[in-house]
Amino acid sequence: MEFDVITIFPEILKSYLAEAQIGRAIRKKLIKINIHNLRDYTSDRHKTTDDIPYGGGAGMIMKIEPIFKNIQALLKKQKKRSKTRIILLSAKGQLYNQKKATQLTKKYDRLIFICGRYEGVDERVAQKLVDEEISIGPYVLSGGELGALIIIDSVTRLLPGVLGNQASLKDESYNNDQTEYPQYTRPEKFQDWSVPKVLLSGNPKLISQWRKSKQKNFKTLIKE
Ligand SMILES: C[S@@+](CC[C@H](N)C(=O)[O-])C[C@H]1O[C@@H](n2cnc3c(N)ncnc32)[C@H](O)[C@@H]1O
Questions:
Q1: Which of 7, 30, 56, 64 stands the most exposed, by the fewest C-beta atoms within 10 Å?
Q2: Distance, CA of 184 to CA of 204 (rounded, Å)
């Protein structure tokens, strides 16, 4: 899987992507991540990526031209466009979830992310340049970079060979709308707090029943 991130703050992403599972996946060549500085696609000497909003209002809006040029450059050598998904991170996009992560993993081999900043992005980017807008949650962030990282992370760990133990994915939270069961490790007793006895029973059937009883439907986690 290849990921491209278009941003005006390339440095924000680098340390997260260099470490742990993502870093390892890059070194094992299971994924490739290209970070693009949008300012490289501007044509004025100030490398301007934003401008004032038509109709007035607070803040600045990201301009369409540099984003258009950046995408054009990325797609130039692209053979099969249908396997590439261009995603605008946006608070008004479709809410991201585990199902979406699985879909992206299965359907595409390249994801291109556009990270907004300031008051947002010229609407023509959403209308004309991207395949979809994704929101990573019902709240407003300062920029799309965290959203891009979240999608890259959640998609990468679903790819074959990324996790040391593929079985980790089986019982994980949000498969079948359920959260994972509670997990414990040594010591058996810490302060006055003991591990549930059933987990020490050695009885797989009882353990499995107990675990099932502790899983929650994710809908019960949403509180308005
Ligand atoms: C400060 S926000 C703009 C918020 C916009 N004025 C609004 O009210 O929806 C700047 C950028 O952060 C990103 N962003 C903010 N919240 C997000 C979310 N929940 N999911 C994904 N991206 C988000 C988007 O790329 C957005 O263009």
A1: 56
A2: 16
